[in-house]
């Protein structure tokens, strides 16, 4: 038992020093100090406890203790301890006393088995007990102050019943009452205990959630109380004493640093409690945080704290963070839970510019400089800033930090921006740091521009004449420009020059050249050349004045071509439209002599006239005249030439107002039209003098509307605004062409003019707008209509290239299409269709199908692999024509048997480009398909089909063409003559090869035995003819086989080589025929004129003139007449032309005449063999005679060229193939026949070859031969033949000759007759 004694000590004892100083200073009145004395009294018998307590209460207070003045103010009993164990006691505080706060968390309630709430709570203390003891109760005492609420739970190991969810149920109320009674009994001795209340039940067995209102109880105290709960609760509740849990939410100090968190910062979250804990778990929302590269957890048990560190936070790290600190013992678990919300803000650095263009040499910029700045949206005291500069132009500045912004002041100097670096980009990067790891940077791109110094000049200074070309050159000292534009300002009108073909730009040096090929009044004005870089424009200008001058095409000449008479004046006129007249000086030039003119107005024309008189009249000649217009600046233009044909001394058949001329003369006049504002239209009228009057041979005048279209097209293509004006012009062209279709159908000139117009406008790039494309293709469709077939045939006969030009114009148009919205619209215009694509990264195969109105189809396929090699935004365009292929010049026996397809590619490609096309056949009966494309360079640039680079694959009714290039394709097919042609080709090549070898052998043999077989005139002439026939035929065959092989292999030959080959083939084949004619005439001469004798020299002269001079004259005349007209050779074969000039007749007619003549001579020979004694001979003699005839025919047929007679059968339409084969066979082997029958069968040659080296044998043989000649009738083949030969035209009898008189005429001619066939 302990007592508390309160006392006060005297001042004398406790302040002796102050007593001694009382005399020196006044006395201070200080209160006496108070002390509390604790006295512990131990009793052996607890029954004395109450009497002792009563005694103390009634004890008088002592006033003096010892020698010290003391006052005892109170004696009270504070603490009573009762033994409760061997080494412990249970201590109680008396009323009005409480345990001190310093030991509040350490005192433990004594065990109690009673539920009586009136019993005081004792607390276990160890023995011996030395305090501290209970103290007077104050607000700071243990268990005093505001109670706290402890949220707790415990589990009942029993099944959960739904009634426990209903507070009004009996079960709920019973559970609640029993549990609260047990809880109150267990927890009543906790310091400051108030109550224990059950709040609810939750499933999971049965969880009891309850609240305990008490003072600040320690972990051990609560655990001790938990252990006692089962003692006060019925065991049927099955309370599990190990599941007591307390959740504490308001006793954790949760701090977050820094307070403003930005992306990239390192964040520290700290949880700190006043009690110890065993482990800690951190949560982000409901997800447990584990240690990783970004998350680290530092737990210090001694300091009762846990720190979560998050590195490089992002906005995803925002949200609720919880720390759960757990302390667990057997009967109690405490969970400290605290939650804070963390907000992570993006660190947004906002520059005042993203990109900015600065003109270095701008005075304003140089004066003020440029201020760059970066700001964040929050003010941070720890903000750090740095600026970095990176670029070709290194202009730096001064950094200034102001609040949450940083500024960078640039000092710009022109010297730091050289012209060659204009457009260079310098990047200024501001980097801002929060001081906690977050760092953000923003870049400002400054493009430093320099206003360029532009110089402009013209090739013509300031003036140029209409029709003349000139160029304007613009130069800039800044090469890194973005674009160049040209404008022409004339008065209030400003035109933009949009002409890709006439503007050429270069980067280094920075030059733009505007080239005008033909100046017009549209080109007059001030030329403004502008170099643009970003938004900075630099310009220069120059003024060009266009001086009027007639264009050559607008000068009418009259006449164009005419005949003139000697010493008679003829009016020559040059006229221009009266509306365009300026002050021109006009002169006429005739044969380079200049003459003055007379001016005269005719209707809408102003004409300049000169009367020309030719005085030199000694011979017929051509005279050229023209007029020259000169304007005020001395520039001139010459008209087209007037062709004058002088006809001295000839009879004039036609003479009227049109002109004069002889019969058949040609007169060409211009197309004057008084109704036309210009006074004339393009074209001319050709007259011919027939029966004393001029008849219109051809009218090539353009109609007025088409003439206007042509003039407008010429102006359009040379206009500075051609691209902008093209859509409206194409609409006008389509409309006028439709109106003038009847005129076009009857006039090849008007048709040709439309084609020329389409070709001109196709050179202008055009946007792929559907109406514009429709108008162009509709115009093409109109002029290839069936109604225009006649006009197209006329154009093709005239050797014009208009059909080829039409195809090329469509190609050019599709090539220059500029897509809109990355698309090429589908266009269909009856016989013409167009499809295309724009190349992009995701393109697949290019696969386009076309179908004509007659259900013919064609497919174009380009693989994805090929398309991926093309440049982005390039175009692939395909155009299908169902009729255009048939107006192109056709090959003989080969026909366009499908649609025509054009595929163009805007991207330039030098390498091969594979494309596959599938054509449906139009005529299934045609065979031998060829995949061809239209080669514009062939046939003197008139174009022709070519199969180079294309491979056909026939697949039923379709032909697949695989080609390695792009242009216009179709298929050519021919009637099924393939086996015949191949067989004939084999015969020709093999036969000609045999003939060439045979002829070479023949020439060698003739040279070896020449002196032995030419011992008389007839034999000499025979061998001369054979040798020349063999030589000419050898040369002709060599030329023929070379050119034929080149043609069959489709190799391209130059025009000159082809002309030369044709000439030599023609000449030497004619030589063969004429030498065969010479041989036939010699035979005929010896058959008919038996007694007549002609000298060897005369015969040689006639033979060589006939054999070489006549062929030469024919060959030269042929080439001289046809070559100037480009009609000497055929298109695809090096041989004489037939279709255009009929030059082949120069070979066919002489050949047929000679064959007919030699056939007659052969007939005469045969008749002479058979006729005289055919009835008087025995059967054996007749057989011998027939055999002799066969030998004669075998000899005469190749030598006289009779096999060429089969050629008549081959030219007959649908002739039997056998005639073609026989013709090829016999003529190809003619050289072999000449060798066998003309040389080797000759007995004299045989003997000469066998005995050439034996002189004696040769002499003997010669003697026998001479005797035989003298006594044997002519031809020495049989007696009947000799008899017949000597009895011309049925005469009987024969000449008797004597071997002793070889000089007689009869003997001589008999010998000569033998020599002709042997």
Helix content: 25-40%
In order across it, which strands form the biggest sheet?
Answer: 11-12-10-13-22-21-17-18
Quaternary structure classification: single chain
Number of helices: 29
Structural class: alpha+beta
Span between N and C termini? 180 Å
Q: Estimate what percentage of residues fall within beta strands.
A: 25-35%
Unreliable residue runs: 7-28, 1255-1318
Q: What is the mean pLDDT?
A: 81
Instruction: Output the radius of gyration.
Output: 64 Å
Biased composition (Low complexity): 1298-1311
Domain GAIN-B: 823-979
Protein name: G-protein coupled receptors family 2 profile 2 domain-containing protein
Family: Belongs to the G-protein coupled receptor 2 family. Adhesion G-protein coupled receptor (ADGR) subfamily.
Short précis:
The protein has about 1300 residues and is α+β, with helices and mostly antiparallel strands. The chain is built from 29 helices and 70 strands.
Give the arrangement of secondary structure elements.
Elements (H helix, E strand, L loop, with lengths): L1 E8 L1 H4 L1 H5 L13 E7 L8 H10 L5 E2 L2 E16 L4 E6 L3 E2 L9 E2 L13 E4 L8 E2 L11 E9 L13 H18 L7 E9 L2 E9 L4 H10 L10 E10 L3 E6 L3 E2 L4 E7 L5 E6 L2 E2 L6 E6 L4 E6 L8 E10 L4 E10 L1 E2 L4 E2 L3 E5 L3 H6 L1 E6 L8 E8 L5 E6 L2 E6 L13 E10 L5 E11 L4 E5 L4 E3 L4 E7 L6 E8 L2 E4 L6 E4 L3 E7 L8 E9 L2 E12 L8 E3 L2 E4 L5 E8 L7 E6 L2 E4 L1 E5 L2 E8 L8 E10 L5 E3 L3 E5 L7 E2 L4 E2 L4 E7 L7 E11 L2 E7 L4 H14 L4 H18 L1 H5 L2 H14 L4 E2 L2 H14 L5 H9 L4 H14 L1 E2 L8 E3 L2 E7 L7 E6 L5 E6 L1 H4 L7 E7 L2 H4 L7 E2 L3 E6 L9 E6 ...
Parallel strand pairs: 13-22, 15-23, 25-31, 33-40, 42-50, 56-57
Antiparallel strand pairs: 1-2, 1-4, 3-4, 4-5, 5-8, 6-9, 7-8, 10-12, 10-13, 11-12, 14-16, 16-20, 17-18, 17-21, 19-20, 21-22, 24-26, 26-29, 27-30, 28-29, 30-31, 32-34, 34-38, 35-36, 35-39, 37-38, 39-40, 41-43, 43-47, 44-45, 44-48, 46-47, 48-49, 48-50, 51-52, 53-54, 54-55, 58-59, 59-62, 60-61, ...
Helix pairs in contact: 7-8, 7-10, 8-11, 10-12, 10-13, 17-18, 17-24, 17-25, 17-26, 18-19, 18-20, 18-25, 18-29, 19-20, 19-21, 19-29, 21-22, 21-28, 22-25
Membrane topology: Multi-pass membrane protein
GO molecular function: G protein-coupled receptor activity
Family: Belongs to the G-protein coupled receptor 2 family. Adhesion G-protein coupled receptor (ADGR) subfamily.
């Amino acid at each position: 038992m302990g007592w508390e004694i309160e006392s006060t000590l005297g001042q004398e004892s406790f302040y002796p020093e102050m007593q001694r100083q009382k005399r020196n200073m006044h006395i201070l009145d200080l209160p006496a100090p108070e002390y509390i004395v604790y006295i512990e009294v131990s009793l052996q018998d607890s029954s004395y406890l109450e009497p002792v307590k009563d005694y103390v209460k009634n004890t008088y207070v002592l006033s003096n203790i010892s020698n010290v003045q003391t006052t005892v103010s109170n004696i009270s009993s504070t603490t009573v301890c009762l033994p409760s164990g061997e080494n412990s006691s249970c201590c109680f505080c008396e009323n009005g006393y409480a345990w001190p706060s310093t030991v509040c968390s350490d005192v433990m309630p004594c065990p109690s088995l009673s539920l009586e709430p009136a019993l005081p709570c004792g607390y276990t203390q160890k023995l011996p007990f030395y305090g501290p003891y209970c103290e007077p109760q104050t607000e700071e005492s243990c268990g005093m102050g505001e109670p706290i609420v402890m949220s707790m739970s415990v589990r009942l190991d029993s099944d959960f019943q739904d009634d426990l969810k209903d507070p009004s149920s009996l079960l709920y109320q019973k559970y609640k009452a029993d549990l609260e009674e047990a809880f109150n009994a267990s927890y009543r001795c906790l310091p400051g205990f108030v109550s224990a209340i059950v709040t609810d039940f939750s499933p999971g067995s049965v969880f009891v959630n309850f609240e305990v209102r008490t003072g600040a109880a320690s972990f051990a105290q609560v655990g001790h109380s938990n252990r006692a709960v089962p003692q006060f609760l019925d065991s049927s509740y099955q309370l599990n004493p190990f599941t007591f849990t307390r959740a504490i939410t308001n006793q954790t100090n949760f701090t977050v640093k820094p307070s403003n968190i930005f992306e990239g910062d390192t964040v520290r979250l700290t949880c700190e409690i006043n009690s110890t804990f065993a482990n800690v778990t951190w949560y982000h929302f409901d997800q447990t945080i584990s240690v990783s590269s970004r998350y680290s957890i530092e737990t210090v048990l001694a300091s009762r704290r846990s720190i979560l560190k998050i590195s490089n936070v992002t906005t995803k790290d925002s949200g609720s963070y919880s720390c759960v600190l757990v302390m667990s013992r057997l009967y109690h678990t405490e969970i400290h839970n605290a939650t804070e919300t963390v907000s992570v803000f993006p660190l947004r650095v906002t520059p005042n510019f993203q990109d900015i263009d600065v003109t270095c040499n701008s005075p304003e910029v140089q004066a003020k400089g440029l201020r760059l700045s970066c700001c964040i949206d929050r003010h941070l005291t720890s903000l750090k800033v740095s600026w970095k500069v990176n670029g070709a132009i290194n202009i730096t500045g001064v950094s200034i930090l102001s609040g949450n912004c940083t500024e960078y002041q640039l000092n710009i100097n022109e010297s730091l921006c050289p012209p060659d670096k204009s457009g260079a980009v310098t990047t200024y990067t501001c980097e801002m740091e929060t001081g906690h790891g977050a760092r953000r940077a923003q870049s400002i791109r400054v493009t430093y521009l320099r206003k360029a110094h532009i110089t402009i000049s013209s090739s013509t200074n300031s003036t140029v004449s209409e029709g003349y070309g000139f160029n304007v050159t613009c130069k800039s000292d800044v090469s890194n420009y973005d674009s160049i534009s040209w404008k022409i300002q004339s008065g209030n009108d400003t035109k933009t020059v949009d002409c890709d073909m006439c503007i050429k730009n270069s980067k280094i040096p920075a030059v733009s050249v505007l080239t005008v090929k033909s100046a017009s009044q549209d080109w007059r004005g001030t030329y403004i050349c502008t170099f643009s870089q970003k938004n900075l424009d630099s310009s220069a200008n120059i003024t060009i004045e266009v001086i009027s001058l007639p264009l050559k095409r607008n000068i009418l000449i009259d006449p164009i071509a005419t005949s003139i008479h000697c010493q008679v004046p003829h009016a020559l006129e040059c006229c221009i439209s009266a509306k365009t007249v300026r002050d021109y000086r006009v002169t006429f030039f005739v044969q380079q002599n200049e003459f003055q003119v007379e001016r005269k107005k005719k209707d809408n024309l102003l004409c300049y006239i000169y009367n020309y008189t030719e005085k030199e009249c000694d011979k017929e000649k051509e005279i050229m005249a023209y007029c020259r217009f000169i304007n005020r600046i001395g520039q001139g233009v010459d008209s087209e030439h007037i062709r004058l044909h002088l006809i001295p001394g000839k009879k004039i058949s036609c003479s009227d107002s049109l002109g004069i001329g002889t019969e058949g003369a040609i007169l060409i006049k211009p197309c004057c039209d008084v109704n036309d504002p210009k006074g004339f239209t393009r074209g001319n009228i050709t007259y011919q003098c027939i029966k004393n009057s001029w008849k219109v041979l051809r009218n090539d005048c353009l109609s007025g509307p088409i003439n206007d279209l042509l003039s407008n097209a010429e102006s359009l293509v040379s206009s500075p605004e051609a691209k902008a004006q093209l859509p409206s012009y194409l609409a006008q062209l389509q409309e006028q062409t439709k109106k003038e279709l009847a005129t076009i159908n009857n006039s090849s000139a008007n048709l040709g003019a439309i084609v020329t117009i389409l070709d001109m406008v196709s050179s202008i790039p055009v946007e792929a707008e559907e109406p514009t494309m429709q108008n162009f293709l509709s115009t093409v469709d109109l002029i290839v209509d069936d109604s225009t077939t006649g006009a197209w045939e006329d154009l093709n006969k005239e050797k014009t290239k208009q059909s080829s030009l039409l195809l090329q114009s469509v190609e050019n148009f599709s090539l220059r299409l500029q897509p809109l919205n990355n698309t090429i619209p589908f266009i269909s215009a009856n016989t013409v269709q167009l499809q295309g694509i724009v190349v992009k990264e995701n393109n697949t195969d290019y696969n386009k199908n076309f179908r004509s109105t007659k259900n013919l189809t064609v497919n174009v396929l380009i693989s994805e692999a090929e398309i991926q090699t093309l440049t982005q935004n390039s175009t692939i365009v395909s155009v299908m024509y169902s009729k255009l292929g048939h107006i192109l010049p056709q090959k003989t026996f080969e026909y366009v048997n499908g649609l025509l397809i054009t595929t163009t590619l805007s991207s330039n490609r030098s390498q091969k480009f594979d494309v596959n096309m599938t054509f449906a056949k139009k005529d299934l009966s045609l065979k031998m398909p060829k995949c061809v494309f239209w080669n514009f360079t062939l046939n003197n640039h008139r174009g022709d089909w070519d199969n180079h680079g294309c491979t056909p694959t026939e697949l039923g009714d379709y032909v697949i063409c695989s080609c390695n290039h792009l242009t216009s394709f179709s298929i050519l097919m021919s009637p099924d003559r393939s086996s015949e042609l191949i067989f004939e080709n084999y015969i020709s090549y093999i036969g000609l090869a045999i003939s060439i070898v045979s002829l070479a052998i023949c020439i060698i043999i003739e040279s070896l035995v020449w002196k032995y077989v030419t011992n008389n005139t007839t034999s000499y002439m025979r061998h001369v003819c054979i040798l020349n026939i063999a030589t000419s035929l050898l040369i002709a065959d060599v030329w023929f086989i070379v050119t034929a092989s080149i043609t069959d292999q489709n190799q391209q030959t130059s025009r000159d080589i082809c002309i030369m080959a044709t000439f030599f083939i023609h000449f030497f084949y004619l030589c063969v025929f004429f030498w065969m004619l010479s041989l036939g005439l010699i035979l005929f001469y010896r058959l008919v004129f038996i007694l007549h004798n002609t000298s060897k020299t005369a015969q040689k002269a006639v033979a060589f003139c006939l054999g070489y001079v006549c062929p030469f004259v024919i060959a030269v005349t042929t080439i001289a007449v046809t070559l100037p007209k480009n009609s000497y050779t055929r298109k695809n074969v090096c041989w004489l032309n037939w279709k255009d000039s009929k030059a082949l007749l120069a070979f066919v007619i002489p050949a047929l005449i000679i064959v007919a003549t030699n056939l007659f001579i052969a007939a005469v020979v045969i008749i002479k063999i058979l006729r005289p004694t055919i009835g008087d001979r025995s059967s054996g003699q007749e057989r011998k005679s027939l055999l002799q005839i066969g030998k004669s025919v075998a000899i005469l047929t190749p030598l006289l060229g009779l096999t060429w007679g089969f050629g008549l059968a081959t030219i007959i339409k649908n002739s039997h193939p056998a005639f073609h084969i026989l013709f090829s066979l016999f003529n190809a082997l003619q050289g072999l026949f000449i060798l066998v029958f003309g040389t080797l069968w000759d007995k004299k040659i045989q003997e000469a070859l066998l005995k050439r080296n034996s002189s004696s044998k040769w002499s003997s043989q010669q003697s026998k031969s001479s005797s035989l000649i003298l006594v044997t009738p002519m031809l020495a083949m049989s007696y009947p033949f000799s008899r017949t030969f000597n009895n011309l035209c049925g005469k009987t009898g024969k000449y008797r000759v004597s071997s002793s008189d070889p000089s007689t005429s009869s003997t001589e001619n008999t010998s000569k007759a033998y020599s002709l066939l042997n």
